[in-house]
Write a structure and sequence with these properties.
globular, 8 helices, mainly alpha, single chain, disordered N terminus
C-alpha cells in the first residue's frame, strides 16, 4: 500500500514537472527557438536580431504575465497558482492578451521575415480566442499551445520544402506527454484537452499556412 501511494506521488510530481516545463507562457519562446534553429532561411537571421526578438517575447509574454499572476494571487483575485477556476482565468487571460498585443506592435517595427511576425500574431490571436472561449468553456491552454507548436513545425516543413520528420515526431510525442499529464492531474477533461489541441493546430495551420 505504501509503495502504491509513493508511486502515485512520483507520477503526480512528474506530471506537474511536465506541465511547468511546457507551460503555455513558454510555448511561444519554444516556437521561436524552433524557427531560429530550423535549417531554413529563418535560421540564418543575425544572432543579434534573434536575441532581441526573444528578449521582447520573454519579457512581455513570460516574465510580466508571471509577475501579474503573482500579484493576482497575493491580492486573492485568484485562489490558486494553477488558476483552475474558469471564471478566475478571465483576468489573467485578458491581461496576457494585452501584453501580446503590445508584443505584436513592437515586433512589427523590425525588418524581419513576415513569417516570424505572423507567428507572433498567430500566438496573440490564439490567446484572444482562448480568452473568448473561456467565458463559456474551460479549454486547455496547454493543449492549445501544443497544437500551435505542432502546426508550426508542419507549416515550416511545407513552406521551406525541407524534411523536419524527426522534429515533428519529437513535437508530437511532447504534445502527447503534456496532454496526458494534464489528464493525469485531472486538470482538464478529455473534451477540454482535445478542444484546445484542435483550436491551436487548426488556427495555426489556417493562419501560418496562408501568410
Amino acid at each position: 500500500m505504501m509503495l502504491r501511494e509513493k508511486s502515485v506521488s512520483i507520477d503526480d510530481r512528474l506530471a506537474q514537472l511536465v506541465s511547468v516545463l511546457f507551460h503555455p507562457l513558454l510555448m511561444p519562446v519554444y516556437g521561436l527557438l524552433i524557427i531560429f534553429t530550423c535549417p531554413a532561411l529563418y535560421g540564418y537571421l543575425p544572432f543579434q536580431v534573434k536575441k532581441i526578438i526573444l528578449f521582447i517575447v520573454i519579457i512581455n509574454n513570460v516574465l510580466i504575465p508571471l509577475m501579474m499572476i503573482t500579484y493576482f494571487r497575493f491580492r486573492n483575485l485568484i485562489s490558486t497558482w494553477t488558476i483552475g477556476n474558469r471564471k478566475e482565468r478571465i483576468l489573467p487571460l485578458v491581461t496576457t492578451t494585452m501584453f501580446y498585443a503590445f508584443t505584436v506592435y513592437l515586433i512589427y517595427r523590425f525588418h524581419i521575415p513576415l513569417f516570424i511576425k505572423s507567428f507572433i500574431i498567430c500566438a496573440a490571436a490564439l490567446v484572444l480566442a482562448v480568452t473568448i472561449v473561456n467565458f463559456w468553456f474551460r479549454i486547455s491552454l496547454h493543449a492549445t499551445a501544443c497544437g500551435a507548436i505542432t502546426a508550426l513545425v508542419m507549416v515550416l516543413s511545407f513552406r521551406m520544402q525541407i524534411s523536419l520528420t524527426w522534429m515533428l515526431i519529437v513535437v508530437i510525442l511532447v504534445s502527447g506527454l503534456v496532454m496526458s499529464s494534464r489528464l493525469w492531474l485531472k486538470a482538464h477533461t478529455p473534451s477540454e484537452i482535445w478542444a484546445g489541441f484542435l483550436l491551436g493546430s487548426a488556427g495555426s495551420l489556417l493562419y501560418l499556412g496562408f501568410v
